[in-house]
Write a structure and sequence with these properties.
The complex is a heterodimer.
Chain A (H helix, E strand, L loop, with lengths): L2 H18 L14 E8 L4 E4 L4 E3 L7 E7 L6 H14 L8 E7 L7 H7 L8 E4 L2 H11 L3 E6 L5 E7 L2 E4 L4 E6 L5 H14 L4
Parallel strand pairs in A: 4-5, 5-6
Antiparallel strand pairs in A: 1-10, 2-3, 2-6, 4-9, 7-8, 9-10
Chain B lengths: L1 H24 L17 E8 L25 E9 L5 E7 L3 E12 L2 E6 L4 E3 L4 E4 L5 E7 L8 E8 L3 E10 L4
Parallel strand pairs in B: 1-10
Antiparallel strand pairs in B: 1-2, 2-7, 2-8, 3-6, 3-9, 4-5, 4-8, 9-10
Classes of the chains: A alpha+beta, B mainly beta.
């Protein structure tokens, strides 16, 4: 499937999912709070490099619930806020927290060097994994998830450029299936509640 | 109708008498209310920033570990607050602090799930007798290139410049990222 088609299909999925919020009492009502993938599909696998310089393969997290987020460390607001939400939700699970992984993929690999990721990502939660790769590798992964991102020059800012990006949390279940996206602003307790459901669900062998 | 007329006139008379007697009682100048109270100035509350690492915490990158990040991302943070306007509309036009190389006013727009952060053009409006909130996912004062670590529980100062109210110094409380 081409990149554009993937993005379009993803867009349609979102539109239909949002449209369904209007129809209360539908039998498809789910206790999950995000925009669901119906039917769930296997989360596209990838291998990138983590903040310690080691290869990280998404598939290695099978058996755990994964919250996958695309962002960049110069983002002062939405990204850290989302990371704090994920850290808090994870902690609220108590001992089940170990069944939840958070993976942060930088969409600004040029500036988010390994040293930057190793300073930034574990500060939110020591278990968090920050991954990067070449711009081409990042593009492939982002496209696979329908993540949009774009460097936007900011001539009047010391930042130089911002990276506009999709600010969803992609939630992958313990069987490695993409179940839902949580839009920015999803309440912490809703994230926690969804994690509990997916942890209890277990993994299909 | 007549009864109502009489009643409403009567009410006016009562009010008039009340006002007159109030004035009459105010023989000493100290008891006289000023005709138009001086406009209450801006108030700035709930000023906080997210804890973040400073430049000194950055490990030295090595050529092998770094895949092309010559111009590495600088540590950033954001300052939030609530600004309540006084009697007239005002505008926050600048912020300064010694904790960062650069301080800018930014905003975040969310469109179709895509987050866009932009510098604010022309300042942040503070409505007269209303308030504007600098909060996550919206307006914020962005600290770019932190010169020191912002540790939770500690404080630092930010100088705000308003178009009309002039310069106001506020103390920022640093809050943990691990809440």
């Amino acid at each position: 499937m081409s990149v554009q088609k993937g993005a379009v299909a993803f867009g349609l999925l979102l539109v239909s999912a949002f449209a369904c919020f209007g129809c209360a009492g539908q039998p498809t009502a789910s206790p999950l709070h995000g925009v669901r993938f119906e039917p769930p599909k296997l989360a596209p696998d990838f291998t990138l490099t983590d903040q310690n310089g080691n290869p990280f393969t998404l598939g290695s997290t099978r058996g755990q619930v994964v919250m996958l987020y695309f962002g960049y460390t110069s983002c002062p607001d939405v990204c850290p806020l989302t990371l704090v939400d994920m850290a808090t939700a994870r902690k609220e699970l108590g001992k089940d927290a170990e069944l939840v992984r958070v993976v942060f993929v930088t969409v600004d690999p040029e500036r988010d060097a390994q040293a930057v990721l190793s300073r930034y990502v574990p500060a939110f939660d020591e278990s968090f994994i920050g991954v990067r790769g070449t711009p081409e590798e990042i593009k492939t992964v982002a496209d696979a998830y329908g993540v949009q991102y774009k460097k936007t020059p900011l001539p009047n800012s010391a930042l130089g450029y911002a990276v506009d990006h999709t600010a969803f949390i992609y939630v992958i279940d313990r069987s490695g299936r993409l179940r839902q996206v949580l839009p920015f602003g999803t309440k912490r307790q809703d994230i926690t509640s969804d994690l509990r459901i997916l942890v209890v669900e277990g993994a299909e062998s | 109708m007549k009864v109502q007329d009489i009643l409403s006139r009567g009410l006016w008379i009562v009010v008039l008498v009340a006002v007159l007697s109030a004035c009459g009682g105010a023989a000493t100048p100290a008891a006289v209310m000023p005709p138009s109270p001086a406009p209450v100035g801006l108030t700035i509350t709930d000023v906080w920033a997210r804890a973040a690492g400073g430049a000194m915490n950055m490990p030295t990158p090595t050529a092998s570990a770094d895949m092309g990040g010559m111009d590495m991302a600088k540590p950033t943070s954001a300052v939030y607050m609530k600004i309540t306007g006084g009697g007239m509309a005002d505008k926050l036009i600048q912020a300064e602090s010694t904790v960062a190389e650069t301080v800018e006013l930014h905003t975040v727009e969310m469109k179709d799930g895509v987050m866009k952060m932009r510098p604010v053009e022309g300042g942040i409006d503070v409505p007269a007798n209303g308030s504007v909130e600098l909060k996550p996912g919206g307006f914020h004062i962005m600290l770019i290139g932190l010169k020191q670590e912002l540790r939770a529980g500690e404080k630092f100062d930010v100088k705000l410049t308003f178009e009309k109210a002039g310069v106001k110094q506020v103390t920022v409380e640093i809050r943990s990222v691990q809440q």
